[in-house]
Amino acid sequence: MSQAKNNKLFAKGWMIAVYVFLYLPIITLVVFSFNDSKLVTVWSHASMRWYAALVEDSELKSAVLLSLEIAGLSALMSVFFGTFTAFALNRYKRFHGRTLLNSMSSMPLVMPDVIVGLSLLLMIVSVQHWLGFPQKGLFTILLGHALLGTAYAAVVVTSRLREMDSKLDEAAMDLGCKPLQVFTLITFPLLVPALVSAFLLTFTLSFDDVVLSSFLSGPGYSTMPMVIFSRARLGLNPTINAVATVTIVVVTIAVIASSFYTSHQERKRKREEAQAYSDTNK
Amino acid sequence: MAKKQSFFSDLSVGRQAVIGVPYFWFVLLAAIPLLIVLKISLSEMEGTQVSSMIDWSNGWPKLTLNFSSYQFIVSDSLYIKTYLSSIKYAVITTLLCLAIGYPFAYFMARSPKHLQPTLLMLIMLPFWTSFLLRIYAWKTLLVNNGVINNVLMSLHIINTPIEMMNNSFSLLLGMVYSYLPFMILPLYANLSKMDLRYLEAAADLGTSPFKAFWLITVPLSKAGIIAGSMLVFIPAVGEYVIPELLGGSSTLMIGRVLWDEFFNNLDWPMASAVAVVMILIILLPMAIYNKSQADLAEGK
To answer: Using an 8 Å Cβ cutoff, are A75 and B200 in contact?
Structure first.
């Protein structure tokens, strides 16, 4: 069966090549962040000087703080509105304008960033024209990120809602729960893992966005990606490598920790279910 | 089993709130802004102000539609060339992602079950690390005195650096790199659910594996192919960051034109008209994508 062996080898080779392609730039960034040379791409010897420069970089530091603030707030808003969207689209199969809501909620997912940014900015400028607010700045960036995040959060929550057993809801109703109680006692606790992953996803999206922020920000409000983008446009800059490495380490830890958390929750739920079944069968 | 909603439950406060809140949110931030773009694309700049569409000076409203921005797009060959070149790059990106991503998703779906979650997470992980930083990383790899050229030259494989930056190669590389996970994930979701008994049946009937792949596996994964292709094509048409960082001035992309009209020329009607035409281009792919998602949800 050398044919089958060859096929397996080809499959393995293809997969490894794709992973190398995906990780090569990331590894280069990390390795060269420890390079002492001012020339980003020429290795001299290992040093921490760009990390030291990072600590001194007040422009970047305030940008990071602003980005964290916006990412946290917009992720909360995204999870809130995204959960509503997922419920409206999944729990109510028939209402006027369901198709419209469906396409509006998937619009930010697929529409190019430049169009979302331009349209939101023109809307905000019109509102400003009538009412005198809002001023461009933190709030307007927040709106843009929350719009994008809501669309993604809705997808995450929807996929969980589809998996969930609607018999649990029905059983709770039979036992006399009001719809709101069904939500707080049954649906919400079961949704928590999905809400956590929706929060993490929308946080990352906001922390990463450069196009929407550039359209929606005002003077004095530069997010971290905006600062990085303006430096990267000018050329190669070793401080970017250092920032990148810090971000990559933090994100990797967060992703791995959250995947452990979800699989732990899943196991716990399975254990409890099994326990409940064996209790009832006694 | 479809339960008919009674008149009263239809009007219940909870239901209205659950539907009303997201409705309000998306109408305000998605629908109205797009209508405003359409409106402004039909006006022109008067000094630093956008002309108003409705004139009240005679006591009654007089509607003026100004098509000058659209006339400009149609008559100026540079705009048409840029639209065509954006579509060209988006199509090539989609095809390359499909060519690389389909075998990958296929092999991943057929690999041992206990390995699959890890393989999947390794695809997602770069997606979680900043897109902007990963594009910047390619710049450090590709420039003339960049990492790849340095390595090749120190190994004496080449004597003069290969030009890999600021051309269509670097642009396509960056686009394929960024959008590949968007192709792999829907394909994997589709292929991993496939019923392998069809392939066994085909083999029993004497079909060669190669033929079975094209006659059974590919048609059954149609939904995944469509979803993945649309998820790559649509954002790729309007991409701004990748052409700006990797494309150089020779590669024409419409996202950059929109950006320049808005930020450099401060011509809002022109930027809006460019956006409206871009929306018209992606409308059909978006409809195809929405339909494939709806079919998927109904389990077709």
So the answer is: no
CA–CA dist A186, A188 (Å, integer): 6
Place of tokens 């929750």: A265
Residue B194, φ and ψ in degrees, nearest 5: -65, 140
> B30 CB near a chain A CB, below 8 Å?
yes
Q: Where are the domains of chain B?
A: 68-297
Cis peptide before B33 (omega within 30 of 0): no
Inter-chain touch A114–B289, beta carbons under 8 Å: no
Give the pLDDT confidence score for residue B188 in this predicted structure: 92
Look at B26 and A105 and tell me if their CB atoms are within 8 Å. Answer: yes
What ipTM, to 2 d.p.?
A: 0.84
Hey, what domains does chain A have and what are their CATH numbers?
58-249 (1.10.3720.10)
Evaluate whether B221 touches B191 at the Cβ level (below 8 Å): yes
Pairs of residues, one from chain A and one from chain B, whose beta carbons lie less than 8 Å apart? 222
Q: How far apart are CA A240 and CA B133, in angstroms?
A: 8
> Which pLDDT does position B51 carry in this prediction?
66
Rounded Cα distance between B150 and B160, Å, is 10
Q: Span B68-297: which CATH code?
A: 1.10.3720.10
Cβ-Cβ contacts under 8 Å, B123 against chain A: 22
Q: What is the rounded CA–CA span in Å between residue B211 and residue B249?
A: 45
d(CA B176, CA A24): 14
Q: Which residues on neighbouring strands pair with residue B46, listed in sequence order?
A: B49
**What percentage of chain A has pLDDT greater than the value 90?**
30
Amino acid type, A68: L
DSSP B144-158: TTSHHHHHHHHTTS-
Say if residue B272 is exposed, middle or buried (CB neighbours under 10 Å; 0-12, 13-18, 19+): buried
* Ramachandran area for residue B156 (φ above 0: left; ψ -120 to 50: alpha; else beta): left
Tens of pLDDT, residues A32-81: 888 877 776 777 777 788 888 888 888 888 999 999 999 999 999 999 99
DSSP 8-class letter at B247: I
B271/A118 CB distance under 8 A: yes
- Alpha helix positions (H), chain B: 7-10, 13-26, 32-41, 68-75, 77-110, 116-128, 131-142, 147-154, 168-191, 197-204, 209-212, 218-220, 222-237, 241-242, 254-263, 268-297
